[in-house]
Structure formats: structure tokens, C-alpha cells
Amino acid sequence: MKRSLLLPLQILVAALALLFWWVLTNTSLIGEMSRMRFFFSTPGDVLQQIMAWFRSGEIWYHLWITLLEAALAFIIGTVAALILGFWLARRPGLAAVFDPYIKAANALPRVVLAPIFTLWFGLGIWSKVALGFTLVFFIVFFNVYQGVKEVNRTVLQNARMLGMSERQLLRHVYLPSALSWVFSSLHISIGFAVVGAVVGEYLGASAGLGYLIAQAEGMFDIAGVFAGMFVLSAFVLLIDWGVTLAERRLLVWRPDNDHHN
Question: Considering the entire predicted model, what is its pTM?
Fold first, then answer.
């Protein structure tokens, strides 16, 4: 789809969603208006709450805490997954030994791990970083592992015939092959890094977006809950946009499919 058409369509979807929300909470077409407002608040009340947070400056501190936790989880999880993914993908025997243990660790429910991390690391940022790490690591690891395994065997054999060292193979063959898989996983793992931070804050913290949402929920402030979720969504989209820019710079050699749609 052409980019000139894509943005208007995306704006149209958002406008229709807001219109439906307004109809839901400001008319009696779908249900009793007071009841709908209690459960869903209204677009106007949510906007006022967001503006109040930014006018007072209160939101910036909470955003910073959540950003720090998510960034640490994202960076540590990604680096660890890249190293382990590349290493095991090039050692099939070792990968077969650890395969059931990696899958078992990935199957552990993160909600169960959250209180354990709180017990181990306390209520500070590191319990949230640990939770975010468990979400980011496995997404990136499996994509890196598969990306390296999918290296074109003909290209690999030709590179070896030309006398490339292992370091050169890593730089010129394995890494370019895995980059598309890596960035695909990064777009997903960004959201999960933030989710890990917010869930950890929700379960126990004194700052962060999760803390704001938990406080609003505790006071039955539906507008505050929805405002926190909208700020969180915008926050994730901005970070994802940054990864997209980095992806375009690093994958300039890849054909642009937009021109063929």
C-alpha cells in the first residue's frame, strides 16, 4: 500500500474508534449512558486527565522510570539473546542438549515470576527489569536462532571456499541473514519490555506508569486508568518508531516492498 494512502487510513481507523467510544458514553444508543460512563469513562474526561498530568509535570517522572526499566530490560535481554542465539545456532549438538530446558523456561508464566523477582530484587527497578528481561530474551533468542539456521547454504559454502574466517563469516554472512529476523523480533519485544516494566510496577512500586494505573484503579478512577493506557500506547509507538528508523538505516540493502504494492 502507498504510504500517502496509509497514514490517512490509519487516522480514519482512530477517528472511527473515538467516534464509537463517544457514542457509547454520550448517548443511550448502546446502553444506559451513566453505566457506560462508569465502565468506559469518556474521551473528553480521559483527554483532560492526560492534559492535567502533563500540565503538572507529574507524568514525566513516571515516564522516565518506566522508560529506564523497559530500556534496561530491552538492552540486556536483546544482547543476551543475540549472543546465546548466535552461539547455539552454530553448535547444533549443544543446542539439542539445552533445547528442552530453554523451552521449559520459556513456558514459565511471567505473572508467577513477578512476585518471585520482587522477593529477590525488592521493589526497586531491578525486579521490573528482570520481568521485562524474561519477556524480551526468548522472543529475540528464537528469532536469532532461526535466522542463523536459515542462512543460505550455497552462499555459506562459497564464502568458505573463498577462505573467509569465522569472524568474516559472522560479519558478512550470518549477521546479514539474521538481521531481518532480529528486527522483526525487536518490534515485538519493545512492547513486551514495556509490559514487563508496567506489570511489575502494577504489582508493587512507588513510581511508573503501572503505578499510576494501579492508583487510578484503586480509586475507581476509570478516566485515569484509560489515560494511563493511552499514554503507555503512545510511549510504545514512539519507541517502535525509533527502532523502525534504525532498521531502515541498517537494512538499506533489502528490497523495499512498498514499491511493489
Answer: 0.77
